[in-house]
Amino acid sequence: MTQYKAAAYLRLSYITVRGEKTGQAREPGYQESDSIGNQRKLIEDFVANQPDIELVSEQMDDGYSGILFDRPAFLAMMDDVKTGKINCIIVKDISRLGREHVETSRYLCRILPAYGVRFIAINDNIDTAHEQSGDQLLIAIKTMTNDSVCRTSSVSTRSALQAKRKSGAYVGACPIYGYQKDPENRNHLVVDEYASLVVQDIYRRRVEGASAYKIAEELNRQGVLSPLAYKVSRGLPHPTKGFADSPDAKWSPTTIIRILQDETYTGVLIQGKTTTPNYKLKKTVQKPVKDLARVENTHQPIISKQDFELVQQLARLDTRAAPEKDSVYMFSGLLICGCCGRRMTRKTNIYKGQRYIYYHCPAGKSQGCQHPARIREDDLVQCVLSCLQTHIKSVVSLTELLNSISKEQINHDLVAKYTTELADNSRQLEEAGRMKATLYGNLVNGILDKKEYRNLMDYYSAQEEQVQAAIALLREKLAQVQDDSGSRLKWARHFEQFSSMTELDRRAVVTLIQSVTVRNKKEIDISFRFQEEYEDTLKMLSRYKEAS
Questions:
Q1: How far apart, in whole angstroms, are the C-alpha atoms of residue 436 and residue 361?
Q2: Is residue 322 part of a domain?
Q3: Does residue 185 share a domain with residue 139?
């Protein structure tokens, strides 16, 4: 006669795809895991030989760790316990119920007995209906063993994932919009031809002055599917929780900004941005930048490094659009007052029916600017256009001259230059490290107080970061020269693309100009981008001219 109404509880920590732990993101064609199926069959076969047990429900947590107990199916099963719908729980083994020693023991030794619930772990030969089988010492040993296994597994998994990240292998479940997993290598990203064109269009529009809001609005108007909607429509892996939007989500400014800030599009993998304090906690925390796994050239870039850096610089400028505008003004964020150094603002005046547009220093004498700059927009446009055209012609001429010189000679000079600069920066880095190493001793000996110590530590730490960034850039340049993978005049192409320019636009301005300093309407200083490369090229040509 039936005495027990039982629930079968099934659990699998992760959905495994081709041997890769992917968390909860499900791949196309996902089938219920064999492990879950095996658990179900084991329990059904067991109950078939137990006339006093009726299997009335099944609860399954597929993709949930046994360390935590806020699993939806587990909580639903406990609700059935509390309402008296079930009075027996059957699992394959204790580890399916949970792997954390303290909490698992609490359920088995206190909570379930308090509700009069029979607990059966088939493979562990535990059945609390039989006093000897449900011995608390045996349960404690089993739960402690499972906890230890979980701890060891967690450490091993973390180490393995970190090793993969440092090697440049992609270990995420859902590639960013614009990429897919390589069918031949799940740890390698390949370009999604369609989505990559959309990404490139987003960057182009941003450089041309469009706001994130305007870009999102235009993509929605054109009927371009948002990243999530696109992945759902193509059956591609996609987030199912967290930041994921609904399947019918549209493009938003937030999505646009996220794409514009993601360095993955330049061929760089930056992984391991978050972690958990330990294997028992689900809450994630941000890892320090220095601890991130960053690997260059892991996959084909969609956006060049130069265009990416240009967009990041634009984000740092004051490029707010006027309320009635969808894009920024041509010189937004670039004009500087030659007297006080403040950024100039655009203003429109109407005089005798005529509309006058000009840029001016917003400070004035009342705020310390003795000679506030002011210039009409049409005068500024003509001046900048003329200067740009002249500089572009100069760059093109340099290119032609440099192409007549032996590549081997130039590369030799560049290697010598970059090697010398690397050595100088390395010495600076070592010196900063030595200074930091002496600070604690000076604090202990009373030479420095705590405030002085912190200030100096911050100063040398910032210096280290700056020098490390400079070293990384120099190493990249040196590698390009040594393996001849980059063009010696790659920078010049940014100017050459505008060689036939007759009218000024935002794209040309932000691509080629760093800043414009206005002293008065007749005195304007223009700082061009890639000035260091330009001057190095001039020096190189000068040396060869003298030698010939």
A1: 42
A2: no
A3: no
